[in-house]
Structures are given as C-alpha cells and as structure tokens.
Specification:
Elements: H1 3-18, H2 22-59, H3 61-67, H4 69-96, H5 117-130, H6 133-147, H7 153-180, H8 182-185, H9 188-211
Helix pairs in contact: 1-7, 2-5, 2-6, 2-7, 2-9, 3-4, 3-6, 4-9
C-alpha cells in the first residue's frame, strides 16, 4: 500500500472525524470539566471505538450489521438511549452545580484530589462511538474503497491503525485546546452553560439517531 493511498485514506478519515457529532460533544464536555486529563481519556476511548469499527468493517462483520435491519435497529436504540442518558446527566449536573460540587466524573469544581474518573471518561468515549451504528455504515462504505476485494491482513491492520490514529489525534487536539481554557471554564456559570449545551446536544443527537435509518 503506497504512501499516496494511505494519505488519501487519512484525509478522508480526518474529514469524517471532524464532522460534528456525539464524539465531539463528549470530548468537549469532559475536557471542559476535567481539563486535559478528562478530554484525553475521552479521546482515547473514541479512538478505541474507531479502531473497533475499522477492524470489524475490514473483516466484514460491520457489513452484516449495516445489512441487517434488526441488528442495526438494536444497536441504534441502545446507542440512542446511551446518548440520552449522557445528555440527561449533563443537564442534571448543570441544574445542581454550585461552587465545590463534585460532577459526574468525580472531579471537584475546585480541582480536588485525583480519583479514578478518567476510566469513566474513557469508557464513555468508547461506548459513545461503539454504540453508534452510523459509524459502522461509515466504515463499511469507506474501508472497501481502500482495501479492495481481497485485502492482506497487514493492509487491514494498517488502515485500521491509521483510522484510530487520525481520530485520536483530532480529538486529542480538541481536548488540549478546550483543556487549556479550563481556567475560564472552571467558573460556575461557564460550567453550567457547557453542561447545559452539551446535554442538550447529546439529547438532540440521541433523538436524531433514534429516528435515523440505515
């Protein structure tokens, strides 16, 4: 697989990662609430989800999901419910936030002691991507164009790694930019606004996913 081939795939993958969606909203929220650490954990979770979809698409498993109306609907409903769950939690955090409160990641408003919450952020990033059947459709459409009909295992692993790396770099960039502004975002009014906006976005995306078709 030539460098031009890989570059074309990376650019296509980058454009897909940069499109607004639940992954972006979740990374922004965790980076705003937990700084670079929270955003980084979420970004790595999203990248892990991208790697999973890329591999399953290359192996043909994701194609079965995209082709099966029942499987697509089941994943769609579970994913929509999960987005609604995250959205409601964000709105509840916005409604109850006061100085020194602990948010749903386990991080205190005043930057309290470290806790195991980065694992929660990673898990949410992973599930947010893994439970989105639209990601399966995206990779089912994308991977065959670059792998061909009978891809080598090395090419499959290489493109899957590139997909995860591109998504990871993009969302790590987002996490670091938002995390760098944490001093401003640590203000209670700003935190409430971020929780409220991302919560509303998550609920909207969850409803949109529930109404979508394969």
């Amino acid at each position: 697989m030539g460098a031009e081939h890989l570059a074309a795939f990376a650019v296509t993958m980058c454009l897909g990662a940069m499109s607004p969606g639940p992954d972006f909203a979740l990374v922004v929220r965790h980076a705003a609430v937990g700084g670079r650490r929270g955003g980084t954990a979420t970004a790595l979770g999203v990248a892990a989800g991208v790697l999973m979809w890329a591999v399953t698409a290359a192996l043909g498993v994701a194609a079965l999901l995209a082709a099966s109306a029942t499987a697509f609907t089941v994943v769609k409903i579970v994913g929509a419910v999960y987005l609604l769950f995250l959205g409601v939690r964000s709105l509840r955090a916005a409604a109850r936030r006061t100085p020194g409160d602990t948010d749903d990641t386990g991080e205190t408003g005043g930057g309290g002691a470290a806790s195991p919450w980065p694992w929660t952020a990673f898990r949410q990033g992973l599930l947010c991507n893994a439970l989105n059947p639209k990601a399966a459709v995206f990779f089912v459409a994308l991977m065959p164009q670059f792998l061909g009909g009978h891809p080598a295992v090395t090419d499959t692993l290489l493109l899957s790694a590139v997909a995860a790396a591109v998504a990871g770099v993009w969302f790590l960039l987002v996490a670091n930019v938002v995390g760098a502004l944490r001093r401003v975002m640590a203000r209670d009014r700003v935190r409430r606004a971020i929780d409220g906006l991302t919560g509303t976005a998550m609920i909207g995306l969850g409803l949109r996913l529930a109404a979508s078709r394969a």
